[in-house]
Amino acid sequence: MQNNFFLKIKFYYPILFAVIINSAFADQDSIKAGEQKAMLCTACHGVEKSVNPEWPNLSQQSKKYLVDQLHAFRDGKRKNALMSSQAMGLSDEDIEDLAAYYNSIPADKGSLQADDDIIALGQNIYRGGIYERDVPACISCHGPKGLGIDRTGYPKISGQHSVYTHNRLKNYKEGYDIKDSVGKNYAIMSSISFRLSNLEMKALSEYLQGLY
Ligand code: HEC
Ligand code: HEC
User: CA of 19: how far to CAs of 6, 23, 26, 96, in Å?
Assistant: First the structure.
């Protein structure tokens, strides 16, 4: 029985290998195509880092999250004066390539800028949540280094501009009433932000900017 199993594995091994190599090349092609298509995006998002703290860094961002957001902008489910028009003309293939490209860029390390007590407040909530208000620990979904979980579309949130993160958390909070019409992942984050005060959101944003 066991022998049989290993024989089978041996037989399929070359095929498996070919499939892996093939998909690795396909990924490389998509990244290359994405790099070309990202020329216009770079003006605002840079490569590793964007120049304006209101514009998010996209480097090393979870691929699924990037795909989801570009679809959301294109379909009008996420709106922004600067960004919405950028996504309007993108095909599904463009979105895949752009996401593969930004996902492949190693991110810069972020740096802390706020006072120690603000950072400490952010770190406490990040690691332990707020029990009395049913705020879960951010670490449980975004991970100890804030890298997220690509498979489920949970984004990387470490090393991000604190100004952008703070705005984004406020947007999730404001979207509480319409959260279910936007999508499952949006609803998760909207319900969490709804229970945070402005000071707590600010503290989390400052802590996250320096996490890596
Ligand atoms: C004129 C400036 C500008 C250009 C050009 C631009 N963006 Fe954006 N982008 C923004 C801003 C501003 C936001 C933040 C929107 C918000 O706060 O909701 C954003 C957000 C995003 C997000 C969401 C990131 C996150 O962490 O949620 C993605 C993905 C994105 N842009 C991809 C792109 C791609 C791909 C291109 C090129 C096709 C592009 N952008 C071009 C300004 C720009
Ligand atoms: C149960 C899982 C879960 C927990 C816990 C969680 N998040 Fe999230 N977070 C998500 C998901 C899913 C998204 C993507 C939502 C979307 O698609 O709009 C997200 C998105 C975000 C974003 C947007 C990133 C960007 O680039 O725009 C920020 C910031 C964020 N979370 C911060 C936090 C903070 C701070 C906490 C703790 C208070 C937290 N999250 C707890 C699942 C979680």
Answer: 19, 6, 10, 20
Looking from the CA of 123 toward its CB, the CA atoms found within 13 Å total 11
Nearest ligand to the CA atom of 203: 2
Q: CA-CA distances (angstroms) from residue 2 to 5, 6, 7, 14?
A: 5, 7, 9, 20
Per-residue pLDDT, 21: 55
Ligand 2, closest atom to CA 182? 18
**Residue owning the nearest CA to atom 8 of ligand 1:** 83
Q: How far is the CA of 111 from the centre of ligand 1 (A)?
A: 22
Q: How far is the CA of 71 from the centre of ligand 2 (A)?
A: 18
Task: Give the model confidence (pLDDT) of 158-185 as tens digits.
Answer: 999 999 999 999 999 999 999 999 999 9
Q: Using one digit for the tens of pLDDT, what is the confidence trace for 61-102?
A: 999 999 999 999 999 999 999 999 999 999 999 999 999 999
